Every structure is written in C-alpha cells, then in structure tokens.
Amino acid sequence: MRMIENKTFDEIKVGDSATLTRTLTREDTELFAVISGDYNPTHLNDEWAAKLLKTQKISGHGMWGGSLISALLGNELPGPGAVYKSQNLTFHRAVGLGDTLTVTITVMEKNPVNNGLLFHCTACNQHGEQIIDGTAEVIAPTEKVEMPAGDLPEVRLRHRHHVFENLIEKVHALPSVKVAVCHPCDEVSLCGAVEAARLGIIDPILIGPEDKIREVAAEFGLDLSPYRIVDTPHSHGSAETAVAMCRSGECEALMKGSLHTDELMHEVASRERGLRTGRRISHIFVMDVPTYPKPLYITDAAINIYPTLEDKVDIVQNCIDLVQVMGVEKPLVAILSAVETVYPKITSTIEAAALCKMADRGQITGGILDGPLAFDNAISEEATRIKKIVSPVAGKADILLVPDLEAGNMLAKQLSYLAEADAAGIVLGARVPIILTSRADSAKARLASCAVAAMYAQARRVGQKKTMTGSK
Predict the structure, then answer these.
(1) DSSP label of 435
(2) Which pTM was predicted?
(3) 185, 418, 432, 463: least buried by Cβ within 10 Å?
(4) Per-residue pLDDT averaged across 332-357, rounded?
(5) What is the pLDDT of residues 419-430, one digit of tens each?
(6) Domains in the chain, ordered, with CATH?
C-alpha cells in the first residue's frame, strides 16, 4: 500500500523543493471543464481553438497547471495537514494538448510566528519554456503523520450524444400529429401527453373517464383547456374508443396511458375492430447508449414472446422502415444469437442465416443484414477484429434483432440500468404507430417516444400524399 508522509514546519528548510510532471490529455481538459464549469470551447474543440487562438490544438485551462501546484503542496511539501492561504500566479503561455508540464515548488521563506511558508512556484513545458511562475503561501503542519494514500475512485467521462434532445427539437419544427391518448389517468401518462403537446410534438385527444382525468390535472396543476377530452366509463372503453378513432383516421397515432399494456394491445389486435395490417405488430426500443457512437434499435423486446421465422421477417422490416425514417438510408441489421456461426442445435442461428438469405432474395428490403452474430460482435469493432469476422454489419450495427422477447427485454434493461442508456419505445405494424410508455420512463424518454411516433406518422402522411399525387 502506498503511504504518504508530511513534513512538519520544523523539518522544512529554506531551499527545500518538490517536483511533479504531468502530460495534458484531452480527458484532462474535459474532466477539468466538468469539475470547474469552465466550458470555454478553446479548451474542448479543435476548430474553435484554431479560430480563436490561432493554434492547431486545444489549450488546457490555466488553473489545470495551478492545480498541479496544489497537488504538490498537499501531497509532498508540506503534505497532509497543510493549509493553503494564498496564491499569486502569472501565466506566460498556454499549455497545449500533449504538452508535458514539470511543476516545481521551492521554499523561499519561513515564518515561525504562524508556521507559514512562502513558496516559489514554476511550471515549464517539455521545451523548457516557462508556462507559470508565482508564489504560494501555506501554513505548515506541526504534527508528524504517515498514512495510506488511499485509492481515488476511477472516473470515466460519459459523452452524451443528445440524440433525444435533437430528435425532439427536429420534430418541434414539424406540424403536430393528432394522437389518441388512451386512459391518461395518472400523473405520468397525463403529464407526458401534456408536455409533448406543449412542445408541439403531438395534438392529443384525451380518452378516458373525464372526472378522473380532470382530478389528476387539478392535483398536478395541468391546464387541460386546450385539449379535447372524450369521456369513457372505464379503461376497456378507453381502449375501444381510442382504437376506433385511429381506425377511422381521426388520429394518426395511439398513446398508452395508465391502463395495462395487454388491455390496449388486445383491442389493437382485434380482427374485427382493431388496427391490424398484413404485418406482424412489433415493438422497437430506440436507445441512446453513452458508450455507443450512434442510436441503437432493439427489436422485439415487448410484444412477440417467441417469434417464428415468419414473424421475424415482419419484425425486422418494421424496424428497418423506422430507422430509415430516422435518417439512416441503409440500416445495418445484426441478427443476434449466442454465437456467430450457424449451429443446428441453436435455432436462432439457423433463423439468422435464413433471414440473411431472404434479404438477398428481396423478401426483406431496405437494410443490410448479417447473422448470426453474438452481441459483442454486433457492437464492438475490436471484438470483430479479434475474431476475424468479415462483415459490413459486425461492430457497427444500427439494429439488433433479438432471438425472443426475454433476451430483448433483458438486453434493453441492462443497457438502461448498467450503461445509463435512455430508451424510447414504439410499436409498429399496426395502422398507426403506438407509443408505449412505462412508469419507469424518464420525462425525456416519454417525449422521445412521442417524437419517434410523430416522425413516423409524418413520414406516412407525406408518403400517402405522394402516392395520391402520383396516381392522378
């Protein structure tokens, strides 16, 4: 175990010194910006550094160098028990990314009246150029101590992609989509619908027991005057009415409220009065994973429990269609299994191979499919390189097609709770997109789910208009 030991006032002599050497990394500048709140772009962005400072690389914060002086005083000379009183520094030039600073502190004066020490402080880069010089005043400890240095927590920077924020902002500029909000009788579902409406993402019709909806609105201070309310006696009636309004074309999307998912989806799947099409209905998670460089789409993790090969054709086609609407012209689809080779005893590997061949034959269109792929091969280019997998999809998938609901649900929740991913959810394959929200969803995730559905509905609206125009 590494130990640190201080030097008391009596032990220290004029001329004593300590030295520390550190190289400035991009992570240092980012972490210092997070801690200090100083997000001047010349410390974080190469383009702005070139424009504003006329240099080809970002510069470190001046006080990053000053913090190294503090580290020497607190750890080495005098060490634990020292009290920092004042600091007077001059910064002669910037510290560039990759520069190595050598910081030296030297005792100039001792004051026995208050156990004070005056240090000369200097920092030079790898070229011997002076970066900082000045003085620091410290009260030295009088009690000798030796102690374990202790282990600092490991810090990893999370680079947010702002996927959902950008999506919400993009949809905000489009005409709102009329949405049947089914049974919004609790805080989460009603507040989510009202907030999405306030941002111009949706134009909601609130369907449910009116007294209950207004009671929730009063409790949480929501103004419902801009919105139409359709009174129904109970949750089953809410589902019937909401689905009927979507079936008639009055609404372009359906949003789940506080009723159970099974109750809503039973009505959606009804052959006589539901929203079925020739496609299998399936769920898609749209995930913003901090450790992955682009949005990740996982399907199906909520509707189809043990999908057949025929089901998976529709499931993957639904997802490809959505990802194209989201701006990816040719989505990369990884068909997941436990291994990356076809193994007859693992059914998902055989189905993966069949799906790829079906795509080759034009039975699945719009995407590039590959599988079977294990999860690491689908999302890690390093794993792909190590296993020598040659594939246009491996390591950079947009879509993960999971073997079954259990695998998909566990995968999505692991990413949410262990990798701090944000997840939006939507159901496709019906006549209208369906927004499925959970009580555990964040406000941002609920808004993102509305935005995804709105974008899809807008794309369908534009497509229908083009079809009508072309037929004239």
Answers:
(1) E
(2) 0.75
(3) 418
(4) 96
(5) 888 899 999 999
(6) 3-148 (3.10.129.10), 163-470 (3.40.718.10)
